[in-house]
Structures are given as structure tokens and as C-alpha cells.
């Protein structure tokens, strides 16, 4: 980003993507200058009582990129690699994502640098509540609405909701999305990101005449996104030949038993002790021959270093920022069809938006209604992006960015500069 404080490999990548879109869009210079950097950021210390009695001070962040289209919206990530630059990049991507799929929301992101897999339930709760208290005046139902992201889940969202509500003195479910249904969450949120990835894969398969019942998939990451993608693809007859998580992966040419893997991970922390097929690394998984490759874990996995070795037909980005601009160039030459992150994984924030709307209205929808509306929005966005890519002769990532960025820039020009 423009100033040193925001800089990290992820934020440089997000800005580079923006600049590539700007080269085509030729945005107003003043608007472009503003969009390259966040609106504001908060760094907080999160003292947490650990089970052994000592107090560990974690570092937490909340970065708000742009709210010209509506309140800031974005998840909370718990991961050791969380830092200001990464959270800033993720906040920027949220702005383009919400804009691309037509939500009246802006982009933000939060996180704590920690390894949640090593924390007890007690420690996780203490850390989450203190983080929420520290960012309390920075967020709000009309200001900035957090949601889940990597390393957080509906229990964490429930603690965020409860902490905020305790401070206000009454229940405020609309402060956060991804909550359990029992306290104002929506049906279908947990599955929404993975389901959305599959809805976009269905459109890509139709376009490219790929018969899904005869195709294969490799999925990197078996968390909330990857596991649902595996389940949904398997139900469509796709052979899931490889899956992985942070402990590594498995490859079975004949297809892995997805249902058994899903059952295993509900009872165990990871895939490690699930004995199917051949053991492979996360990096090897990306280079397997398959029809559909779904990175659904960390960013910057597909780079100038390995993109040339990819052998998939469709790359559906469940993760945020899994592919670098150098890799994009190579994938274009190889004619791999990329469903970019801000389109492929937008299902999560779309259903978060539905949850926020339902909370504000105190009126709840059925899971069928949620899924139907989700599919409508994603299918429309997919064809808008495809149309732009064909008209402008650009790849799907650039087309998606052009639509997302341009809507935000137009809104900024209408609203003008308050001085
Ligand atoms: N973490 C999700 C994303 O990256 C969605 C966050 C939300 O629902 O607010 O799109």
C-alpha cells in the first residue's frame, strides 16, 4: 500500500491487482489514490488469561478499507500469520467482493495473530471477548459488521455477539454474522462459502462443456470452505481425488471417500490420521492432474514458481488471494479457466448480508430461500464477469476486479469529497 505501515506481500499483491484494473478502467486519479489504501485501521493489545495462570498479550487488528457503498463488512481471522498488511489486503478484497456481487456493503477485515488450534476453549473465549471489547467503538451494526473467516467459527461469533450485547445492555444480533441459528444466525451461512464456490463451478462447467459426473477435483484446505466444496462436488458425481489441510494431504486416483473424511473431521482436529490413498504435500496437491482445482486455504499458494505446473482445467478460488499476479499471467497462457476469489468465494459474505438483513428485520427465511437467493446472485455475477471478460478481452480476474472497483469508484465520484 502507499505508505510503509500497510506494506506486506499480501497488500502489495492487492494493490498490484488494483493497479492492473486501473490501467484498464483509467479511474479518476484522486479516487484511485484513495482506493489503494484503507480508510482506517486499529491495532489492539489483547491480554488473555491462559490456563496456566499467566497473561499472554495477543495482537489484534481491524482494518476498514472503504464504506462508500454501505457499512464495512468482513471476517475475523485467527492465524499465526495475521498482521496489519495481510488484514489490509483482505479488507480491500472485501470491498471489491461486496461491490462485485451488488451488496450495499463496504470492505473490512479483522484478526488476531495466534494459533487457535493450540488454545483451549477457555483461552479462545477470553481472547475473543477481550478483542471484541477493544474494538467495540470501532464496529457497530450500521458501521462495521464482523463475520467469520479462517480460524473462527460460529462459537467465536456467538462470543462476539454476547460481549457487544453485554456492553450495550440488550441483545444486538446484527453486530456480527455467522452466528449460530439459535441466537439470530441464518440458515445456510455455515455452508454458504463452499456452496457458492460450487454454484460458480457449475456455471464454468456448463460454459466449458465439462461433464461434472465424469470429472475430478483436488481441494487444498478442509475447513469450513474446503469440506463443503468436497461434499457438494461429490454429491454432483465429481470424483474428489485429493484433499489436504495444514497437516498435509491425501491423493487417491480412484477417488477419496468424502463422507468418511467428513465424519473423521467432525470428531478429530484434522485429516492427519485418516488413512486413505497416498500422502502428498499441500504444494504437490496443486500440481495434480484434475479437472477442478480448489485452493481453499491460505493466500499466495499459486505463484510464478509453480503456476506453469498446474494441470487443472478450472481453478475455483475458495481462498482469498491464493494466486499472485505473476501466476495469473501464466494461467492465462495455459488457458486455465480461473473463477477468481472475489467471485468464487463471495457466497459467504452474501449469506452474511442475508443474516444481517434478517436480524435488522427480525424476520427469518428458510434455508431453501437462502440458497435460492444465493444462487441467483452468484449466477448473475458470474455472467456479468464473463460478459466483461469477453467484451474487454481480459481474464476473469481482471473482469471481476474491473466491475467491483468501478462501482466503488463511481459511487465515490457521486458522493464527492467532504472538505
Ligand atoms: N470471511 C469471508 C470472506 O472472506 C466473509 C466474511 C463475512 O461474512 O463478513 O469473504
Describe this structure in words.
The protein has 419 residues and is α/β, with parallel strands linked by helices. The protein has two domains: 4-171, Rossmann fold (3-Layer(aba) Sandwich), CATH 3.40.50.10860; 190-344, Rossmann fold, CATH 3.40.50.720. 45% of the residues lie in helices and 17% in strands. The protein contains 14 helices and twelve strands. The strands form two sheets. Strands 9-8-7-6-10-11-12 form a seven-stranded mixed sheet. Helix 10 (325-333) links the parallel strand 11 and strand 12 (337-339). It starts with 8 loop residues before the first helix and ends with a helix. Bound molecules: glutamic acid. Glutamic acid binds at residues 73-75, 97, 147-149, 177-178, 320, 345, 348-349, 352.
Q: State the helix count.
A: 14
Domains, number: 2
Named once each, the bound ligands are: glutamic acid
> In total, how many beta strands?
12
Strand share of the residues? 15-25%
**Would you tell me the overall average pLDDT?**
96
Q: Determine the fraction of residues in helical runs and give it as a percent range.
A: 40-55%
Q: Mind sketching the topology for me?
A:
Blueprint: H1 9-25, H2 29-35, E1 40-49, E2 55-66, E3 72-79, H3 84-100, E4 107-113, H4 121-135, E5 144-148, H5 154-168, H6 189-208, E6 216-220, H7 226-235, E7 239-245, E8 248-251, H8 258-267, E9 278-280, H9 282-286, E10 292-295, E11 314-316, H10 325-333, E12 337-339, H11 341-344, H12 347-361, H13 367-392, H14 396-415
Parallel strand pairs: 3-4, 3-5, 6-7, 6-10, 10-11, 11-12
Antiparallel strand pairs: 1-2, 2-4, 7-8, 8-9
Helix pairs in contact: 1-3, 1-14, 3-14, 4-5, 6-7, 6-12, 6-13, 12-13, 13-14
Bound molecules: glutamic acid (GLU).
Amino acid at each position: 500500500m502507499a505508505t510503509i505501515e500497510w506494506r506486506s506481500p499480501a497488500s502489495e499483491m492487492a494493490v498490484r491487482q488494483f493497479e492492473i484494473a486501473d490501467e484498464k478502467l483509467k479511474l479518476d486519479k484522486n479516487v484511485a489514490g484513495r482506493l489503494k489504501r484503507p480508510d482506517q485501521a486499529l491495532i489492539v493489545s489483547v491480554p488473555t488469561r491462559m490456563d496456566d495462570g499467566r497473561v499472554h498479550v495477543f495482537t489484534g487488528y481491524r482494518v476498514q478499507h472503504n464504506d462508500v457503498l454501505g457499512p464495512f463488512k468482513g471476517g475475523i481471522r485467527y492465524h499465526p500469520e495475521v498482521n496489519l498488511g495481510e488484514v489490509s489486503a483482505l479488507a480491500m478484497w472485501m470491498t471489491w467482493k461486496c461491490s462485485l456481487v451488488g451488496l450495499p456493503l463496504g470492505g473490512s477485515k479483522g484478526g488476531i495473530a495466534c494459533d487457535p488450534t493450540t488454545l483451549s476453549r477457555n483461552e479462545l473465549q477470553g481472547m475473543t471477548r477481550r478483542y471484541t471489547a477493544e474494538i467495540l467503538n470501532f464496529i457497530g451494526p450500521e458501521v462495521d459488521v464482523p463475520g467469520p473467516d479462517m480460524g473462527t467459527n460460529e462459537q467465536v461469533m456467538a462470543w462476539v455477539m454476547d460481549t457487544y450485547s453485554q456492553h450495550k445492555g440488550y441483545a444486538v444480533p446484527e453486530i456480527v454474522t455467522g452466528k449460530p441459528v439459535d441466537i439470530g444466525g441464518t440458515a445456510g451461512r455455515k455452508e454458504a462459502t463452499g456452496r457458492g464456490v460450487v454454484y460458480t463451478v457449475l456455471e464454468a462447467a456448463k460454459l466449458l462443456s465439462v461433464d461434472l459426473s465424469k470429472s475430478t477435483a483436488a481441494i487444498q484446505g478442509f475447513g469450513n470452505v474446503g469440506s463443503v466444496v468436497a461434499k457438494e462436488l461429490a454429491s454432483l458425481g465429481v470424483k474428489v481425488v485429493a484433499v489436504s489441510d495444514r497437516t498435509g494431504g491425501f491423493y487417491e486416483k480412484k477417488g477419496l471417500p468424502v463422507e468418511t473424511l467428513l465424519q473423521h473431521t467432525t470428531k478429530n482436529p484434522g485429516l492427519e490420521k485418516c488413512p486413505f490413498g497416498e500422502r502428498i504435500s499441500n504444494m504437490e496437491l496443486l500440481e495434480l492432474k484434475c479437472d477442478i482445482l480448489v485452493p481453499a486455504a491460505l493466500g499466495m499458494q499459486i505463484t510464478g514458481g509453480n503456476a506453469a505446473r498446474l494441470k487443472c482445467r478450472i481453478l475455483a478460488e475458495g481462498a482469498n488471494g491464493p494466486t499472485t499476479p505473476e501466476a495469473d499471467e501464466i494461467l492465462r497462457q495455459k488457458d486455465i479457466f480461473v473463477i477468481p476469489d472475489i467471485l468464487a468465494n463471495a457466497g459467504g459474505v452474501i449469506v452474511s448480508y442475508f443474516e444481517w438483513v434478517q436480524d435488522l428485520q427480525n424476520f427469518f427465511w428458510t434455508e431453501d430461500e437462502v440458497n435460492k437467493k444465493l444462487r441467483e446472485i452468484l449466477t448473475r455475477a458470474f455472467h456479468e464477469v464473463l460478459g466483461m471478460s469477453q467484451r474487454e478481452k481480459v481474464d476473469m480476474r481482471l473482469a471481476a476486479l474491473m466491475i467491483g472497483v468501478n462501482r466503488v469508484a463511481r459511487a465515490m465520484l457521486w458522493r464527492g469529497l467532504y472538505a
